[in-house]
Design a protein that fits this description.
With about 350 residues, the protein is α/β, with parallel strands linked by helices. About 20% of the residues lie in helices and about 20% in strands.
Amino acid sequence: MQEALPGAGERDAMIEKKPKQQPLIDVPPEWVEHWEGMPEYVPGEAKPAYTVQVNFKNQADKAVFMELLGQDPERRRSFWYPPMELFKSKKPDGPVSVMENKYPIYVISKGRWKTGQTTRELSKLGIEHKVVIEPQEYDDYASAVDPARLLILPFSNLGQGSIPARNWVWEHSIASGAERHWILDDNIVGFVQKNRNQKSKIIDFNPFRDVEMFVDRYENIAEAGMNYDFFVPNRERHPPYYLNTRIYSCILLRNDLLYRWRGRYNEDTDLSLRILKDGWCTVLFNTVLAKKVATMLMKGGNTDELYKDDGRLKMAESLRDQHPDVVKITQKWGRWQHQVDYRLFKKNKLIRKKEAEGKA
C-alpha cells in the first residue's frame, strides 16, 4: 500500500516560512559517514533552465492538457518536456557471474507460475533463491520454475493472505542456521541501480550484497530493504538510504527478532512500526531499487484475495487500529490510503559494531 515518504506530510500554506540560516561550517549530511566503504553514490538532481506554471479552470481541462502531453493527470504535479532520457540500459558483454548473497532469499508466490517475475529476474542474475508455494500448485510451478527452487508449504488456502507463508519462511530460515533472511514479493520485474542522476538496470552484480554489506556493520538494524523504483525519480535528489521508515516487498530481516507477521492487511508496515517503536533501526535503500508491478495490476497473490470490494479501506483502517498514534487515513489518487508519521523515530540512531569501526 502506498503512503507518503518520510517527512512528506502536507504543511499549512498560510504559515510564513523563515529563511534558513546558512551554516558557518559546511557540514556533510549524516549519511556520508555511514556510507564510507560502500559503492560510489553521488546524489544527483536535475534542475530545469525554465519552468512554466499552467492554471486550469477545472479538473477536466487539466486532464485534457495532461493527456495531450502523455502525462498522468492524477499522479503528476510536474514533468519534463520533452521527457528526460535518464534510464541507461546495456547488455552484458559475456556470461554474468555475480557475488553470492550471504542470506537466503525467499520468494512467496501464489497463482503466478506463468507471470511470477521475481524468480525470473533473480535467475537472470544468477542469484540463488527459493520460491515458496502451496502444495496444490506444485505441478503448475514445477512446469515453469526449476523444481529444485521450490519449497512447499504444509498448508493451503487458509484465506489469511501471505501471513502464514511469511511466518513459515521465518522459521525455515532459522532452522537453516541463517542470521537473517530475505523475503520478496513475486511481482518484481527487475532491479535498478541509481547513481549520479542516472538509473540503469542491474545486469552484472548482486544488489542484495550491497544491502547485506551495509547492514552487517551495525548492531541495531532489524530490517532493511530496497525502495521501489517509482518512489525514487531521477529528477529529485535523494540520499543513498532513508533511515527509520517502512520496508516492504523486498525485505531483509534479522532472525532473532521476537516479532512475527500478524493480521491480514498492511503486514509490512505493521512489522516496521513495531520494530521502530522498540528502538530498532530500519534502512530503506535508494541506491539499489526494486522495479515492481503496481498494486492491483497483476492477478494472483494478494490481488484477488485482499483488494476486492472495500479491501483498501479495510487495509487502512486495520493499520490505524493497530497504530493510532502514528497512522491516519487519507484518500489519494481516488483510493483510500494510510499515512504514517515516522518523525517519532528520528531518535533511533545507528550503532556501529565495534569490530566494524574504522573499517571501510
